[in-house]
């Protein structure tokens, strides 16, 4: 790599460093993560990225940014955010969240609620294969439980996000599983066997931790009475998700149920419901802005060669199987940081990972597992990733605060790293 390419590669990544440094530095100085809105951090980084781009007219630079902000997969996420905001507001206004919280408190001992919620998130995400769908279904309930039980809200949100990535990583119908297995040329069943040996021990450890954390929790002495009919909207959403329906269809049906039952129970009148839907949609405004700014910023970084630079650096000094497996994990991790999308990260480096695997005789099942596990781990701790932004948008908690409590993604990253260093599982290493 020439010195010029080295300098241009680092320069391409500079806007990302500006965003991270600016956001964290202001938070540390002010001792408050809310002092500098994340939207402003992304705006400054985005303007910097456009200004730093050379060899293109200003119109072309803005066009690249706009295409990145409006890419198909990103806009689909925006529609999900809008529907999720509307459904969450509608369900909350009719009393669905409170009723579901009190129902859970009635059937579960308080000391097992954190562990039970984590296990529920794991099971639901494994069944539906999407972390975002799991977060939409469980975050409002988790937030309600945190207020009733006196648990830190970021802790319980991190719990749900962690469980959501359990299925995102392992499910046969997850986008990441499909991308990892197809790029490495192995079956989903074989990848599942290897992957589960790495992440299930981590999940068990985290489950024990949540059991210990929750052991001292106590329910309120008297729980308010609630109408079981109010539970129906969330029950419908979870059951439809488990049956594999599209997330947007699930949310639309959930909206219809919450609206109809809310009108029936006189929780609001028709115009009151419309106002609630409007408030719910507009409450996701910051989340949508961040998502689109991040998409545009990352498109500029990719155009300027930032991702190719990372790939070139990490593949230059590979020696032996451990180095090869580490490079695959680092590749997908850094690209995930630059794209904020674990599926896209796997697709981007999948072919390169396959070439590395062939050269150093790495089992395709192990390389697929490394790709999927590291990408999910990084996605689970990105404050500008869709999952944490979704949880933050539904609860008004800072994404940075949530990151500190995403224990499961951190655990699987460590477990994946150990699996490389100690050659585990032996059969596939």
Short description:
This protein has 429 residues and is an all-alpha fold.
Total discrete domains: 2
Shape: globular
Q: Ranges with pLDDT <50 over ≥5 residues?
A: 1-7
The rounded Rg comes to 22 Å
Structural class: mainly alpha
Question: Tally of extended strands?
Answer: 0
How far apart lie the N and C ends? 31 Å
Q: Give the proportion of residues in helices.
A: over 70%
Tell me, rounded to a whole number, the average pLDDT.
Answer: 87
- Residues in β-strands, percent: under 5%
Which sheet architecture does the biggest sheet show? none
Write the element-wise H/E pattern from the N-terminal end onward: HHHHHHHHHHHHHHHHHHHHH
Number of helices, counting only DSSP H or I runs of 4 residues or more: 21
Verbal overview:
This protein has 21 helices and no strands. Residues 1-7 have low confidence and may be disordered. The two termini are 31 Å apart. The chain is 78% helix and 0% strand. Helix 2 runs parallel beside helix 14 (285-303), helix 4 packs across helix 13 (270-282) and helix 7 packs parallel to helix 19. It folds into two domains: 3-72 and 292-428, no CATH class; 73-285, no CATH class. It is mainly α and 429 residues long. It has helices at 3-30, 38-52, 58-69, 72-94, 96-107, 113-128, 131-149, 153-170, 175-184, 188-214, 232-242, 247-264, 270-282, 285-303, 306-315, 320-339, 342-359, 364-379, 386-395, 399-403, 407-421.
Helix/strand layout:
Layout lengths: L2 H28 L7 H15 L5 H12 L2 H23 L1 H12 L5 H16 L2 H19 L3 H18 L4 H10 L3 H27 L17 H11 L4 H18 L5 H13 L2 H19 L2 H10 L4 H20 L2 H18 L4 H16 L6 H10 L3 H5 L3 H15 L8
Helix pairs in contact: 1-2, 1-14, 1-15, 2-14, 3-14, 4-12, 4-13, 4-14, 4-19, 5-7, 6-7, 6-8, 6-10, 7-8, 7-19, 8-10, 8-18, 9-17, 9-18, 10-18, 10-21, 11-12, 14-19, 15-16, 16-17, 16-18, 17-18, 18-21
